[in-house]
Amino acid sequence: MITKIIKIENEFEREKIKEVASALRDGKLVVFPTETVYGLGGNGLNEDALKNIYVAKGRPSDNPLILHIADLDMLDTLVRDIPKDAKLLIDKFWPGPLTLIFNRKSIVPDRATGGLDTVAIRMPSDKVAHAILKEAKVPVAAPSANLSGKPSPTSTAHVIEDLDGRVDYIVDSTRSFVGIESTVVDMTVNPPMILRPGYITYEDLKSVIPDVCYDNTTIDKDDKSVPKSPGQKYRHYAPSANCYTYVGDVNLVRDKIKEEINKNKDKKICVIATDRVLKEIEEDVLKLSLGSGEDLLDASHNLFYNLRVADDNDVDIIFCEGFEQVGLGVGIMNRLTKASSGNVTVLGGKKWEN
Ligand code: TXA
Ligand code: MG
């Protein structure tokens, strides 16, 4: 298949937006940008398009998709009821990086939900995404636009690496500003439960729903029960190199990483950390920044991007700086724990906060 790469810089490029929106409506596959990560979109009501999404990604068919919408009228056509708490979250956080799980109407194909009675819905805030979805006039099913098992892509170049030749269109746009996937909250259980942590934090959600809770497997790496969200049970987001994450006081993290670099002199090493740590590392290693350390958004924005760069450089080992499990730190550590296959070490004897 020849993939058409189409540059859309903003929501005012009407002709191009119409072109990709009508392709989506007609059952074609279109990768589009969102504020979290790029999505591999297809018409959420079209069986063939849904089947093709799973094929293009190499994704197991029991892992359900998120339907992306541009307005609340469309939500009513897809879900049986909108609980009061969901209405409050929608008012406060949509459009934005928050996915909500509802009981689905029968119009939603089994193939979109992996046969579940529930459906995940999200209204992205990215302006180009919004314009495409509005014009498509159908719900757009879109998993992250990576091959299964690779980190979610946050730039067009990373999408092209995985999906050139496997989809009809790739929209070439800016880097995703959040950099990790949306927060997923199940609104069909009482109290509502966070199935995947993200930019909309536990604290944000709690300010609206005081009793909101976590699926414990998303925050406790030692909890081996089956995650409530099908997608969380797969080994995700993992680079090819062995990856180790260290959390704790910055000085301890820096010293530990330096010690590990010296123990592994025969290996090609990458360090992914904040500038506070990187500036002290004189050894000849690939250094990739998670920002100054003052704003966790810099870390989430650069995390998957850097894991991909490390992979592209064929490094043998990646040492990462981790973060306290507070606010956006929870979502970042959820991804880092997976990328590190659980090799997360807390330094200084301090308990890993959450
Ligand atoms: O930020 C995002 O959410 C991105 C962008 C493209 O919007 N999309 C994304 O999709 O991350 P995906 O398919 O990679 O992740 C969807 C997650 C999976 O973990 C899946 O298991 C879960 O949502 N999910 C979908 N429907 C569900 C349902 N009915 N019940 C429980 N979990 C569900
Ligand atoms: Mg994904």
UniProtKB/TrEMBL annotation:
InterPro entries: DHBP_synth_RibB-like_a/b_dom, Sua5-like_dom, Sua5/YwlC_C, Sua5_C, T(6)A37_SUA5, TC-AMP_synthase_SUA5
Domain YrdC-like stretches: 14-200
Intracellular or extracellular location(s): Cytoplasm
Keyword tRNA processing applies: yes
Catalytic activity: L-threonine + hydrogencarbonate + ATP = L-threonylcarbamoyladenylate + diphosphate + H2O
Binding site for ATP: 59, 63, 118, 144, 152, 196, 237
Residues engaged in binding L-threonine: 36, 68, 122, 142, 182
UniProt-recorded Gene Ontology molecular function terms: ATP binding; double-stranded RNA binding; L-threonylcarbamoyladenylate synthase; tRNA binding
GO BP, one annotated term: tRNA processing
SUPFAM superfamilies: YrdC/RibB
GO cellular component: cytoplasm
EC identifiers of the protein: 2.7.7.87
PROSITE patterns: YRDC (PS51163)
A Pfam short name: Sua5_yciO_yrdC
Family per similarity comment: Belongs to the SUA5 family.
NCBIfam families: L-threonylcarbamoyladenylate synthase
Protein purpose: Required for the formation of a threonylcarbamoyl group on adenosine at position 37 (t(6)A37) in tRNAs that read codons beginning with adenine.
Protein name as catalogued: Threonylcarbamoyl-AMP synthase
